[in-house]
Write a structure and sequence with these properties.
Elements lengths: L2 E3 L2 E3 L1 E4 L8 E4 L2 H4 L1 H11 L7 E6 L2 E14 L2 E10 L23 H4 L3 E3 L5 E3 L11 H4 L2 H8 L7 E2 L2 E2 L1 H11 L4 E2 L9 H13 L1 E3 L2 E2 L4 E4 L7 H10 L6 E6 L5 E2 L8 E3 L5 H4 L1 E6 H4 L2 H4 L1 H6 L11 E13 L7 E14 L9 H12 L4 E2 L15 E3 L9 E5 L5 H18 L5 E3 L25
Parallel strand pairs: 9-13, 15-16, 19-21, 24-25
Antiparallel strand pairs: 1-2, 3-4, 5-6, 6-7, 8-9, 10-11, 12-22, 13-14, 16-20, 17-18, 18-19, 20-21, 22-23, 23-24
Length: 461
């Protein structure tokens, strides 16, 4: 059975030697954490026998895997990316929790089999996102299916659609790479705006989205974070015309109407720090959609009538066309016209949350000085059941405690709750995980006790 390492299962792969020597053992998680090592291993064994296999067995034999390669042209250079796949008709034979469980390739094209997240030998990671970074679309293109995609791309359903990440899934991936999807008392300084911005920029430095180096088309705008107006203007000039750029920031107020004679349906999105760098962010009403219905917690945090009793943040990731506006009098400004967006609610410590109940648990964990993480479903190879949180300090190395908040009482959710309960009981034992049902128990039950450790490993991050 795989072990939980941080948020994710540890799945070891065996690459037998064609010369009869000792096999090579590789952790499947290295495709993201150590992409150069992982890709080099796949390249060495590509097209050779015997095939690699995971630790799953069927009738005593290990289930073999195929190494597949695909060559793409990225910024004028040809690059071969390798990935693993199960053998035809053998996906259901892999154990639940294995990343190759239920991934039979029958009837799929090469494009459909290509994973959304791919690692390269040079250490970069490519992601296929369901948002183009080429020409911007019209308002009509943003409605309909895009509205449905925003509805699907929430915590309970995931940031992955088919073999493409949603815009929210991309934000989760960046957040995870920046080591922000969790908390420990040693990480307080990492949440200061200047450090937060630098972490996000560093996380984006090794990412390619749809063949475009993300660092060339993206920026992070935060108050008191050393954002520079000249850098934002350079970004606008570099991507002038109808090319999209990517911005990440923190919303400071509800979207408000900001009509002009030429744009009567224009609204303003207020981000912290935009006034310091001369940035104005606008979105047409058709693109904004029913944002309060899709993000009810965000509406409450930003000043709705039912504001939570505890603080929270609302971060936005958006694609926009940008232009530099130099008025006859006054400072130069950058105008961003939003093409698409997604919101992510977090605690004050920047830990993502999906509801006010999760926010309560995250705040209580912080107040208790606990180490925990928030699994984010952007990785197609994540566990089939992801907990709301994972306590990282409840035992020896590799011992983690899943945490679930069962906050709904409708019939469909109750069925899903029963499935999750059976999964956790089977995997961890009834005493090996924590849960809270507010409908039955208004206050959260006591957290599992923390084990005694030496130095907090997060102190080095």
């Amino acid at each position: 059975m795989a072990e939980m390492i941080n948020n994710r299962p540890q799945t070891w792969l065996t690459f037998p030697s064609a010369m009869g020597g000792p096999p090579e053992r590789v952790d499947y998680a290295w495709r993201l954490s150590r992409p150069a090592v992982f890709q080099a291993c796949l390249a060495r064994h590509h097209g050779k026998l015997p095939r690699p296999h995971c630790d799953c067995h069927d009738q005593g034999r290990p289930l073999q895997l195929s190494i597949k390669g695909r060559t793409d042209e990225v910024e004028g250079q040809r690059r071969t990316v390798y990935h693993l796949a199960c053998q035809k008709q053998e996906g259901p034979l892999h154990r639940p929790g294995c990343p190759f469980h239920g991934t039979s390739e029958i009837g799929q094209s090469d494009a459909a089999r290509m994973p959304a997240i791919r690692s390269h030998e040079d250490g970069t990671v490519s992601m296929t996102v369901d948002i183009p970074f080429g020409l911007a679309k019209s308002v009509a293109d943003a409605e309909g299916p895009r509205e449905q995609e925003r509805e699907r791309g929430r915590f309970g359903i995931g940031g992955l659609q088919r073999n493409r990440l949603t815009l929210l899934g991309l934000l989760w991936a960046i957040w995870d790479r920046a080591h922000l999807s969790g908390w420990s008392p040693a990480q307080t300084k990492a949440r200061f705006p200047r450090v937060l911005r630098q972490r996000l920029l560093t996380a984006m430095a090794g990412l390619e989205t749809n063949g475009v180096a993300l660092a060339q088309v993206a920026d992070v705008v935060l108050w008191k974070a050393d954002c520079r107006a000249t850098a934002l203007q350079d970004l606008a000039v570099r991507n002038s015309g109808r090319s999209r750029v990517l911005l990440i920031g923190r919303l400071s107020a509800l979207p408000m109407p900001a009509p002009t004679p030429h744009a009567p349906d224009r609204w303003r999105m207020s981000l912290d720090g935009t006034s310091d760098v001369g940035l104005s962010v606008f979105i047409e009403r058709g693109r904004l959609g029913n944002w309060a219905g899709r993000y009810p917690l965000a509406a409450r945090v930003l000043g709705g009538t039912d504001r939570p009793s505890v603080g929270a943040n609302v971060f936005v990731i958006l694609t926009a066309t940008m232009r530099v506006y130099a008025p006859p009098a006054g400072p130069t400004r950058v105008i961003a016209d939003v093409q698409d967006y997604a919101l992510m609610e977090t605690s004050l410590q920047m830990v993502p949350v999906a509801s006010a109940l999760e926010l309560r648990v995250a705040d209580d964990l912080v107040a208790a000085g606990r180490r925990f993480s928030k699994p984010l479903r952007y990785d197609p190879d994540a566990e089939p059941v992801l907990p709301d949180f994972v306590l990282q300090d409840t035992g020896a190395a590799g011992r983690r405690t899943p945490m679930e908040v069962f906050g709904r009482t409708d019939e469909a959710y109750q069925a899903r709750q029963a499935e999750k309960t059976a999964w956790y009981d089977l995997r961890y034992g009834r005493a090996g995980w924590w849960s809270w049902e507010p409908a039955i128990q208004p206050e959260p039950p006591p957290f599992p006790p923390a084990a005694l450790h030496g130095q907090d490993p997060d102190a080095r991050r």
